[in-house]
Amino acid sequence: MSSDNKHAWALSISQFVLLITLLNLIIFHVPLYQFVSDNLPLDSLQGVTTLLSVLAIIFLVSLFLFSVVALVLPFLLKPLSIIFTLLNAAAIYFMTTYHVVLDKTMMGNILNTRNEESLDFLTPSFFVYFVLLGVLPSWLIFKTKIKKRGQLRLVLQVLVSFVVGGLFIYLNASSWLWIDKHAKTLGGKILPWSYVMNTARHYSEQSEGAKIQQLLPPATFRNDKKQVVVLVIGETARAQNFSLYGYSRQTNPFLSKRKGLTVFKNTNACSTYTTASVACILSHTESNPSGFEPLPSYLNRHGVDVIWRTKNWGEPPIKTNEYLEPSDLEANCKGADCAFDGVLLTGLKQRIEGSTKNKILVVLHTKGSHGPSYFSRYTKDFEVFKPICKTVELDKCTQQELQNAYDNTILYTDYFLDKTIDLLSELDGVPSTLIYISDHGESLGEFGLYLHGTPYAIAPDFQKKVPFLVWQSNKNSLITNADSYSQANIFHSVLGAFGVESKIYDKSLDVF
After folding, report:
1. Cβ-count burial of 339 within 10 angstroms (0-12 exposed, 13-18 middle, 19+ buried)?
2. Section 203-221 average pLDDT
3. What would the pLDDT profile of 357-368 be if each residue is shown by its tens digit?
4. What's the maximum distance between 2 C-alpha atoms anywhere in the chain?
5. What burial letters (b/e) apply to 189-211, b meaning 16+ CB within 10 Å?
6. Strands (E), 87-171
7. β-strand 432-438 against 227-234: which pairing, if any?
8. Which of 221, 235, 455, 508 is the most buried (most CB within 10 A)?
9. Closest C-alpha among 132, 131, 110 to residue 121
10. Could you give the CA distance from residue 394 to residue 408 in angstroms, rounded to a whole number?
11. Helix (H, G, I), strand (E, B), or coil: what is residue 43?
């Protein structure tokens, strides 16, 4: 008996590639099949042929790429197959549990997630997916022996598959229109190529953005009077759940009583994930916001005392007079708020009063309503709406439990902003302004979606409509004349609040 026959899992390289391709097609594309079945009439010939065309495309793409690896770097074929199987198992968990699409923006969202946030997702269900769909198939791949011969058969296999598959797709050209219409969503669901290609695209874009920021034109101030502007960048707060925007629940009990507060209706986020939105908030332009000097750096360069306090992450490279994280503030913080966004206010009044500069910009980047562990974003006093969702596996909660937990985070944000306004009100004789805007919204199960990061073109308004609030110490509300607002208003409104004159200043985007 030959050594090949003694091995229970001996396959030629062409057989191994075909097996991996078929397993990948069958096991790891259930979310894609679900999407197709939800959007195609599978009881019609047109629907069936379109589905078969989608399958043919996935099969041919996978077969070609696995074959290239087998021919060029055959020693990497098995290790890569194992790595992709493990990653696919993790991807399937997130795609089925949170209904995410692994496009470029979602990959950026995933890759920029901090370790402590990642731990929220390590649930029992995740490990079940990972073991059944990742570890067990990987063990079978590891035990399989690949025969050295079969390269010629592999080439013939690819050629025949492409001829037959390509002919089938061509003969069903009527399905192209539907595939093209849903190309972005379909592309984000094809594993492993969705996260491989979109990770590469994300890092390529970051590399472009990492180039030296272009300095903005010189700026001057109309006066040298003492003045404070506080910009609060919220996290995952959607306008639909603010009672200030007509929500039926009272989620803004403090701010609703504030004089001098202006609520800007119909405000859009630039993106559905943090890094892109924060870059947009701090930029004078929505076009290539990372390529230019951001707001804090610009004002810092012109003598403004810029204080940045964060319980979050994702800001572009910035230059400030002071950059503080919770670990820098906790030693002097007292009370339950110290574990939440309230820590950012520790000693802030004294810091502002002690500043030797007349123009002071404070940026507070909050944790806000960041999911999926909404229940961990507020103190016990703000657990008003009950019962709450106490798990990160959001699809296991009732809609009411999920809504309650999220609304409690908005209650805490309302309290935090009111407390910040109290602090500014205590600055004796110093004109002050508070601007609050969230980075993006959130899906809470509507349309089967959870969290955020859905491609902007197909994201629901729950992820795009954000709260935009302004309070001024002179207690005069602003007049909101525009039909809509966006994060692009922030840069120019802050310049307007400080009375900055510059070629880059756009009066039409200044809400003041």
Report:
1. middle
2. 78
3. 999 999 999 999
4. 95
5. bbbbbbbbbbbeebeeeeeebee
6. 145-146
7. parallel
8. 235
9. 110
10. 16
11. coil
In this predicted structure, what is the pLDDT of residue 380? 94
Which range, of 11-25, 125-139, 153-167, 384-398, averages the lowest pLDDT?
153-167
Residue 331: both structure tokens together: 């030693």
3-state secondary structure 399-460: HHHHHHHHHHHHHHHHHHHHHHHHHHHCCCCCCEEEEEEECCCCEECHHHCEECCCCCCCCC
Structural tokens at position 77: 């074929």
Residue closest to 499 by CA, chosen among 480, 481, 485, 512: 512
Residue with tokens 């078929």, as numbered in its chain: 22
> Where do runs of H (alpha helix) occur along 28-76?
30-39, 45-72
When mean pLDDT is compared across 17-31, 150-164, 466-480, the lowest value belongs to 150-164
Higher pLDDT, 26 or 185: 26
Q: What is the chain's alpha carbon radius of gyration, rounded to the nearest angstrom?
A: 27
Mean pLDDT is highest, among 117-121, 213-217, 319-323, for 319-323
Assigned fold of 229-375+406-509: Alkaline Phosphatase, subunit A (3.40.720)
Angle of helix 45-72 versus helix 77-98 axis, rounded to 10 = 150
Question: What is the pTM for the complete model shown?
Answer: 0.76
Rounded Cα distance, 176 and 424, in Å: 59
- Tally of helices (H runs) and strands (E runs) in the chain: 20, 15
CB 364 within 8 A of CB 320: no
Residues spanned by CATH 3.40.720.10 within the chain? Answer: 229-375+406-509
Helix ranges, 258-397 (H): 274-281, 295-301, 326-329, 348-353
End-to-end CA distance of the chain: 87
Q: How far apart are CA 258 and CA 462, in angstroms?
A: 26
Nearest to 311 by CA among 322, 324, 294, 321: 324
Q: What's the CA dihedral at 209, 214, 220, 222 to 10 degrees?
A: -40
Task: Band the pLDDT of 80: cuts 50, 70, 90.
Answer: very high
Structure confidence at residue 456 (pLDDT): 85
Tokens linked to 464? 């795009």
What pLDDT is recorded for position 376? Answer: 93
Please tell me which residue, 417 or 290, carries the higher pLDDT value: 417
- Quick one: average pLDDT of 2-28? 76
